[in-house]
């Protein structure tokens, strides 16, 4: 009987700890792993980053140059269910029990609501001025000039490895509800 009580106590404690970890990771702070080379030379495949989720929880707009994680499924609504499911997927991928979600991308904020962005001659122009981007891997190859105005409540994101990155050039501006947090620490 004492052993059953001990097991029940441990099970209860572990369940509470897991629930708290999921809530903290969903709404406050989350470790995650970089997958791919789209943020080179600054972040590399399998780097670990820590992400502050407070801007997502309180619906803030990130600043220019912030490195953020996004949900790339921009054509679907995102809700609390998604916020709670993402940390579980991350935990499972870190311990190699599941593949990391391929819809979670890490990118840099280039444009905020109301900005007009133009990509031409391998450079990005924001509101008519060329951006100084010392963080990019190499000059961007562009097929044809592209111009976009960022809608309200959305941002425009690009990878630092512009020639090897899926980003807003392909999925369009990202709703703020899909900006899941800001990278605050890289390991």
Summarize the helix and strand pattern as letters.
HEEHEHEEEEEEHEE
Q: Which architecture name does CATH use?
A: Ribbon
Helix content: 25-40%
Helix/sheet category: alpha+beta
Strand order of the largest sheet: 1-2-11-3-4-9-10
The shape, in one word, is: elongated
Main β-sheet: number of strands, strand sense, barrel status?
A: 7 strands, antiparallel
Q: How many helices in DSSP terms?
A: 4
Number of strands: 11
Q: Please report which band the strand proportion falls in: under 5%, 5-15%, 15-25%, 25-35%, 35-45% or over 45%.
A: 25-35%
Number of domains: 1
Oligomer: single chain
Highest CATH level, the class: Mainly Beta
CATH superfamily: Umud Fragment, subunit A
Summarize the structure.
This protein is an alpha+beta fold and 187 residues long.
Task: Tell me about this structure.
The chain has 187 residues and is an alpha+beta fold. It contains four helices and eleven strands; from the N terminus they run H-E-E-H-E-H-E-E-E-E-E-E-H-E-E. The relative contact order is 0.21. This is Signal peptidase I.
Question: How do the helices and strands line up, and which of them pair or pack?
Answer:
Layout: H1 2-27, E1 29-33, E2 48-52, H2 54-57, E3 67-71, H3 80-94, E4 104-111, E5 116-120, E6 123-126, E7 129-130, E8 146-149, E9 154-158, H4 168-171, E10 174-175, E11 179-186
Antiparallel strand pairs: 1-2, 2-11, 3-4, 3-11, 4-9, 5-6, 5-8, 6-7, 9-10
Helix pairs in contact: 1-3
């Amino acid at each position: 009987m004492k052993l059953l009580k001990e097991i029940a106590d441990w099970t209860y404690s572990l369940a509470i700890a897991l629930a708290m970890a999921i809530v903290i990771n969903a709404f406050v702070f989350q470790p995650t792993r970089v997958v791919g080379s789209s943020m080179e030379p600054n972040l590399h495949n399998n780097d670990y980053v820590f992400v502050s989720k407070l801007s997502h929880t309180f619906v803030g707009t990130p600043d220019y140059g912030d490195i953020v994680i996004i949900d790339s499924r921009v054509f679907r609504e995102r809700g609390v269910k998604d916020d709670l499911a993402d940390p579980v997927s991350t935990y499972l991928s870190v311990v190699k029990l599941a593949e990391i979600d391929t819809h979670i991308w890490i990118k840099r904020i280039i444009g905020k609501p109301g900005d007009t962005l133009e990509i031409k001659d391998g450079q990005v122009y924001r509101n008519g001025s060329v951006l100084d981007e010392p963080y990019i891997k190499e000059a961007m190859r562009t097929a044809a000039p592209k111009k976009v105005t960022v809608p309200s409540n959305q941002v425009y994101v690009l990878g630092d490895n512009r020639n090897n990155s899926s980003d807003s050039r392909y999925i369009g501006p990202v709703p703020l509800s899909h900006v899941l947090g800001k990278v605050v620490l890289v390991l």
